[in-house]
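Quick bug: peptidylprolyl isomerase output formatted oddly.
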Amino acid sequence: MTTLALHHILLKSPLLAADVLQELQLGAEFSELAEEYSACPSARHQGFAGYHDSDQLPTELLRALNDHDNESPYVGPVRTAFGYHILKAVAKPERTLLIDEAEQ
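Here's what came back:
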């Protein structure tokens, strides 16, 4: 099991998620956008949602982090049951993600 520091902006709309991601790509500060737009309580902490065991995170987030190519400091938007996440890539999961074939 791996522990990950989760930095994210949670948005309820895919259109808003696309706009926020574009602002990030144009140089906006992740922390400021998290405080302004995130629907998660972590907005009060500039998008830092704490440390989580990888087994406790939604599979979609782990898959997105695992597939991240490190060309961009941001991952997403990633859709989960909670909404649309833009992740600040701080580290990849250390082990290969096992995905149930029934999910695919």
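Actually, after a second look the formatting is fine. Residues 3-103 form a domain with the Chitinase A; domain 3 fold (CATH 3.10.50.40). Closing.
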